[in-house]
Structure formats: C-alpha cells, structure tokens
Design goal:
This protein has three helices and two strands; from the N terminus they run αββαα. By secondary structure, it is α+β, with helices and mostly antiparallel strands. It has a domain of about 30 residues. About 0% of the residues are buried. The chain has a two-stranded antiparallel ribbon. Strand 1 and strand 2 form a beta hairpin.
C-alpha cells in the first residue's frame, strides 16, 4: 500500500509501480465510484468498438448465413428416418 496526496483539483497521482502491475497505460480510460464503506474504487474501463447495422445490412447478413433449402430438406429427411427406426 502506498500513500498518495489529493491535489487542489481533486487529482491523485497513482504510483507507476501500481499502474505497471495492473497493465494500465497512460491515457487509459478509467471508471471511478464511491463504495458503500467510504472508499473510492478505480478500475480500468473496457472500451469496445461497435457497429450499427441498417435494416438492409441485417437482411444481407441473414441471406449470407441462411441454410440452403436443399440442406434443410436433407436434414429433415434424416431426422424423420431416425425417428422411424
């Protein structure tokens, strides 16, 4: 445990050894919250890119990933045959 000091603007400098041990780099987004026992929790924020798809793009995905009708029919016949015996 290391002692740090709160600056005039509410800023705290986290010792480099702690940052390195956690794999936190400069300019990393962080989440901060107050805990129920009067503490402060600081942890790295995960940032994930995402893409919004238009309805047309969703239809395209569904078309590209659809199972061909001939294959579905073949699977249905195999299941029916297995049920018969």
């Amino acid at each position: 445990m290391e002692l740090v000091k709160l600056g005039k603007k509410g800023q705290v400098t986290i010792p480099i050894g702690i940052l390195r041990a956690l794999g936190v780099r400069e300019d990393s987004p962080m989440l901060v919250e107050a805990t129920g026992d009067g503490g402060i929790m600081l942890r790295p924020a995960a940032v994930y890119p995402f893409e919004m798809y238009s309805d047309a793009r969703v239809v395209e995905f569904e078309r590209e990933n659809a199972v061909p009708a001939a294959l579905l029919a073949k699977v249905d016949r195999a299941i029916a045959k297995k049920k018969r015996g």
